[in-house]
Amino acid sequence: MDARAMYSPISSLSFHKPITVETGASVPDVILCMQEGDPNHERGTGCILVVKEKQLIGIVTERDLMQKVIGKNLDANDVIVNTIMTESPDSLMIDDPIAFALNIMHFDRCRHVPLVDENQVPVGIVSSRDIVAYSAEFLKMDNNQIDGER
Asked: Which helix (H) or strand (E) holds 125?
């Protein structure tokens, strides 16, 4: 795989549409959104973006639910998303290079990076799985080239 592939824009990936909840949503509502995912997911989703007046203000992951609700033995019905979300998560735009997403994932120790437009309105979410799938396609192409040279 050529390292230049990581400088392709994020729009080259098969990233997913964001699933969002409004600030103040209950944890059970967040869990339901995660379980339902969107029609393009075979399974649910591992994170939900939190918005206020359509703008990104936070992100909630399965890990947040495990550590901040279940791990603290809290009653999920009594918890709102604002108290467990990561506020102001690093985000990117779809024209940013894939390498930027990897950098955020590495330094922020996360698996999902929100994608926003110029008004901070979520337009997608890129996951480490999306990047692995993209990389696998390049590796497949490289192997085909190697096989063709034999």
From this structure: strand 122-127
